[in-house]
Amino acid sequence: MRAGYVFVLPSIVLYAAFVLAPVAITIILSFTYYDISFGADWVGFENYVRFLTEPRSLEIFWNTLRFAFLAVTFNVAVGLILALALNRAMPKFLLYFFRLAFFLPVIISAAFVAVVWSYFYSFDFGVLNYYLQQIGIPAVPWLSSSRFAMTSIVIMDVWKNTGFFMIILIAALQGVPKPIMDAASMDGASPWRRFSRITLPFISPVLFFCIVFASIGALQVFESIMILTGGGPGDSTRSLSIYLVDEAFGSFELGYAAAVSVIMMILVLIITIIQIVGSRRWVRE
Amino acid sequence: MQTRSMQTREARKWVDRAIIAVLLLMGIAMLMPFFWLFSMSFRPAAEAYKMPPSFFPPSFDLTNYQTVLDSSVPFLRIYWNSLYVAVLVTIGQLVTCTLAAFAYARLRFPGRDSLFFVMLIGLMFPAQVTILPIYLGYAKLGLLNNPLGLVLMGLTSSFGVFMLRQFLRSQPKELEEAALMDGAGYFKIFWRISLPQLSPALGALAIITFTGAWNSYFQPRALIESQASMTLPIAMDLLRGYMSQGNLSVVMAAMSMAILPVVLLFLVAQRMVIEGVTFSGIRA
């Protein structure tokens, strides 16, 4: 009977020390003004009020949502198109190559590849601008203009993450029953009709999972922005994660940074709840 | 009727070929940054900014690699730190998660399901919510600027426990029950029966954990400042200092070495990596 506790003990102790306690402390910290040498002063909701009233933090909040919206839309849409294209009979070596090409970016840290991309995007020495100019298009300030910077980051993010959704959606597509598809094409249903009436309803739970999953990841975006633009120019690409690190380890506003992280946690929680409620609804069909 | 279906079959074949051709082009485009990185790492410094960039390096010159190792950035030390953290975190998670998964899947004890539920909640917290208290705690314990700190916080994971427990539950438990009847102790059952049953899942978990730790950026960045304690992803910022000195090829040589273990792992165990990563959903 008691043996069970012995087996779970190491993981529970570590989990309590590195997850549960820190989350609780962060929540408490978010209601304080915390100074490393003088300790904490209770300030109630002041940190939250500051976040919700400062134009700067609101711009950053908005950036994060905008990034998440764009990244989720394109990651899942491109992933779906690739999955539909790949879901056909082909020789084994081709399949290996496609898996390699589309999945390799998923497993290499953005911290590494973003450096290569920052070279691609560079205004004066960048490969992209070189080829654009060759075909007569003026150089684009990919990362140095607030008009383009966010788009450039989204492009890299889609390159990096879409393969993940592609793989998941291929698995879902393989679950679409073939007899139904064959019967539909016998009856002369067009490819679009077959897709919208059979495939889409079938894979919709997985598609829904992809959207939720992509959103949770995108809301926490950190390294790709950190390395490509560091949040700039100005605040135009700063995300909540970067803001949090700036406030905590740059300005040592730990109480305020804690409030920012609690807000991030609430965002993720809301999406998780939507997932739970939504998946119940999907599964029932 | 016969001819029509033959015609459509022929047409469909061509559509298939066209789609595969487009996919091939896209696949090559996807791999370009990696190709670029390796190719550039062999290019002499003088050619680093040549336009148009030559596709293949003029020679396989290892000078840039040597420059990385000789530079003021302690690259080998940083590489060692990355290995140290990733290997110990992987071993730690395999041990703690296997033990816990065995208990949650096979043993009965009061509070088992509530404990498991509490563990599952951990899947919901982003790293940003735990980092500040860990930072403050580490500051008190002298674990800031110490790779050991990164190891300690990675020794268990809700995901690992969850994944292994689900896997073990999908396996037959008659063997364990029979062994229990014969009077075998829990540790013996765990070691002799459950652990071998778990081995395919352990491989997947090891790959995910290793890659995750190798790629980790947010936490090391918050907890480590000194060069000698850095891991590779955060050291990239340091190495980028070289770019301003005009030597991009050196940075690319460092980068090639940094991504090598994960690339090799992927080339060798493609299926396992993909299955593991898609199951866990880590985003590197």
What does this structure look like?
The complex is a heterodimer of chains A (285) and B (284). With 285 residues, chain A is mainly α. Chain A has one domain: MetI-like fold (Orthogonal Bundle), CATH 1.10.3720.10. Chain A has helices at 3-29, 46-53, 55-86, 92-107, 110-121, 127-134, 149-173, 178-186, 191-219, 223-228, 240-250, 254-284, and strands at residues 32-35, 39-42. In chain B, helix 3 (75-106) packs across helix 7 and helix 13 packs across helix 14 (270-280). Chain B has helices at 2-41, 63-70, 75-106, 112-121, 127-141, 147-153, 158-169, 174-181, 186-215, 218-223, 232-239, 241-244, 248-268, 270-280. Chain B contains 14 helices and no strands. The longest helix of chain B is centred in the first third of the chain and has 40 residues, at 2-41. Chain B has 2 domains: 2-65, no CATH class; 72-239, MetI-like (MetI-like fold). With 284 residues, chain B is an all-alpha fold. The interface between A and B is large, with 89 and 92 residues.
List keywords for this structure.
heterodimer; A: 285 residues; mainly alpha; 12 helices; 2 strands; B: 284 residues; MetI-like fold; 2 domains; 14 helices; 75% helix
Classify the beta-strand content of chain A into a percent band.
under 5%
Annotation, overall tally of beta strands of chain B: 0
Helix run count of chain B: 14
For the record, the CATH architecture of the largest domain in chain B stands as Orthogonal Bundle
> Radius of gyration of chain A over alpha carbons?
23 Å
| Elements of chain B, N to C (H/E) | HHHHHHHHHHHHHH
How many H/I helices of chain A? 12
User: What's the CATH H-level superfamily name of the largest domain in chain B?
Assistant: MetI-like
Q: How would you characterize the largest beta sheet of chain B?
A: none
Low-confidence stretches of chain B: none
Mean pLDDT reading of chain A: 86
- Cα gyration radius of chain B (Å): 25 Å
User: Averaging pLDDT over every residue of chain B, what do you get?
Assistant: 85
Q: How is the largest sheet of chain A built, in terms of strand order?
A: 1-2
| First-last Cα distance of chain B | 53 Å
CATH architecture of chain A: Orthogonal Bundle
How many domains of chain B? The number is 2
Number of strands of chain A: 2
**Which ranges of chain A are low-confidence, i.e. pLDDT below 50, for 5 or more consecutive residues?**
none
Structural class of chain A, by secondary structure, is mainly alpha
